[in-house]
Amino acid sequence: MSRGGIQGFESERLSQILAARRLSQAQLASLVGVSPATVSKWRSGNQAPERETLERLAGVVNVTPEWFTRAPSAKVSLPLFRSNASAHVAARAMLEARMEWAQDVALALSEFVDYPTLNLPIRQFKEPDEITPDEIELAASECRDLWRIGRTAVPDLALAIEGAGVVLIREETGISQIEGLSAWSDALGRPLVLLSADKDNGYRSRFDLAHELGHLILHRFIPRPTERDRHKQLEQQAHRFAGAFLLPAETFASEVRTPVTLDDLLLLKRRWGVSVAAIVMRLRALKILDEEAAQSLFKRRSARWGAKSEPGDGDRSPERPRLLRRTIDLLVEENVMPLDSIPRHIGLAAHDIEMLAGLSEGYFQGKPKVVQLARLRSAPSPDAPVATEGNVVPFRFTPKR
């Protein structure tokens, strides 16, 4: 139990804010004007800050003082990061904290609305060796069937995933090496996906999202690995799922002309919304190309365009989340909650909520007009088609009484 200071100070919140702001205990101590030993005692729960010190602490890290007295929600499942390098430890901790904050935002808003019903294929794999290429193809096809999107190019994957009940966040993280992460939230009863917005490439962002969808479906019950080879195996499976989902074998293969040329692949890139590099990998998985032919195309691609970019990369804007943003818009439009009271209700800084919910900068300082939404309606039946471009993601509005 804490000795002295504010009653109810949650030391876990301090650990969370240190990770989210990428601050060391010594740096925080200097900013607040206390000793590093004092911050260490706060963090261990052996001491709590006095009222005036808590206000300085809150001001330094840009949250409300009251936020430090809120019991943290149950932690999300441990995310599986694309890179397993130890050099990214601090970056991972920051992203995990942001994911927990996204969970806090979604939980606070769920007091007023019902999110779309979770609609993902269920797989109970306990070991990655259980997951065969055929199992991956089957899971990708089942996902498309559940969402009723046929076997054509998906117009907007972000919208489809949110319509299936996944909470999606896309924000600039400052960590370009980590394109995305995903985790399951017991508190929400649904998963979350956080995508990095640091690379403004709609093709790559779309594949990253499909990759995280693969992790959510295939690897939910598999412990996060520490061995490099096992980690690589899970990553390869998520990559294969992304290719199978975005480029379904039944229809995609029929559009491929042989011999395959880079110019032909650029046309397929624009049609399917998938990079040439990912298309080559899919053609290899479908055995339309053998290993030698695939490597030859990769070499020609690098020689012609370089290793990191392709023609037309700027033609497709990254798909953007809508669910949290439109939920906040709805609460304001329906006069359920005044604009400036939403950050206080959640407890986080307005800027952090704007980032996590995909709101425009300065949103909570007021805006001339709230975005008009379609008329609220009952949740769709299980047989209803998934939302497509131009439709509002359906959710039921249930004011708290």
TrEMBL record:
Belongs to the short-chain fatty acyl-CoA assimilation regulator (ScfR) family. SUPFAM superfamilies: lambda repressor-like DNA-binding domains. One of its GO terms (molecular function) is DNA binding. Residues 14-68 form the HTH cro/C1-type domain. Signal peptide: none annotated. InterPro entries: Cro/C1-type_HTH, IrrE_HExxH, Lambda_DNA-bd_dom_sf, Rad_response_metalloprotease. It comes from Acidovorax ebreus (strain TPSY). This is HTH cro/C1-type domain-containing protein.
